[in-house]
Amino acid sequence: MPPESSYETCDTKDLVLLISNMLTELVRFNDAIPLKDGRLTRFHSRAPPGISIKDYLQRLTTHATLSPPILLSMVYYIDRLCALYPAFTISSLTVHRFLITSATVASKGLSDSFWTNSLYARVGGVSLKELALLELEFLWRVEWRIVPRPETLRDYYRSVVERSEGYRIQRDGGGSRAGSEKARSSGSESGGSESGGSLGCDGVMDRG
User: Fold this and answer.
1) Fewest CB atoms less than 10 Å from the CB: which of 23, 123, 124, 157?
2) What is the sign, positive or negative, of the torsion defined by CA atoms of 112, 117, 118, 120?
3) Taking CA 150 as the corner, what is the angle to CA 78 and CA 94, rounded to the nearest 5 degrees?
């Protein structure tokens, strides 16, 4: 695989920070848009949970052992779900249920071994029955296509890192060192994705 595939070795704490920052920005944008009648989905909560996006995502990552490919797949699912299910947007009322559902789905789709739904439900703070309903709804809405190609995850990795001020992909001598292409604090400017993706209002990467 190309050197860029070393997104798999990215420190999950860095990735959680970058993804949670992106999601917080997305929530702030979408919360400012009035909710239209009939636009509630199964992913909507009655009120925003008391835990922050960052703390919640870190909780899931720690206790459900989410790997970088799983975390990046969760970002990919935002675009896929928004494209196929226009009623869905990432907001303060949907983001937490989206995260636990996408973490459960991605773990099963990308990992040879994964936890039971009982653990995912307990870690995510939802009932086992509710998680099962969320998972089924999610799979139906994304047409059961839950395994992105490695090059797609690489593009999302670049986009998440390069749009974050103070972070860049570490390289050595014009190429990436094995296992070192990870998000690290730096003084470089953040730019657009090399793949042509950009932050979208209801997703993460808009592709032309």
Assistant:
1) 123
2) positive
3) 15
Question: Can you give the pTM of this predicted structure?
Answer: 0.79
Separation CA 208–CA 197 (nearest Å): 8
Instruction: Tell me the residue type at 77.
Output: Y
170 CB burial (10 A radius; 0-12, 13-18, 19+): middle
Backbone angles phi, psi at 37, to 5 degrees: -60, 140
Tokens at 193, concatenated: 């994705």
The angle at the Cα of 157, spanning 90 to 185, to the nearest 5 degrees, equals: 100
Largest CA distance in the chain: 55
Pairing type for strands 183-185 and 167-169 reads antiparallel
Label residue 112 by pLDDT band (50, 70, 90). Answer: confident
* Mean pLDDT along residues 19-29: 96
pLDDT in tens, 33-92: 887 666 789 999 999 999 999 999 999 999 999 999 999 999 999 999 999 999 999 999
Burial of 178-201, coded b for 16+ CB within 10 Å and e otherwise, reads eeebbbeeeeeeeeebebebebbe
pLDDT band at 164 (very low <50, low <70, confident <90, very high): confident
Instruction: State the distance between the two ends of the chain, measured CA to CA, in whole angstroms.
Output: 25
SS3 of 183, please? strand
pLDDT at 168: 79
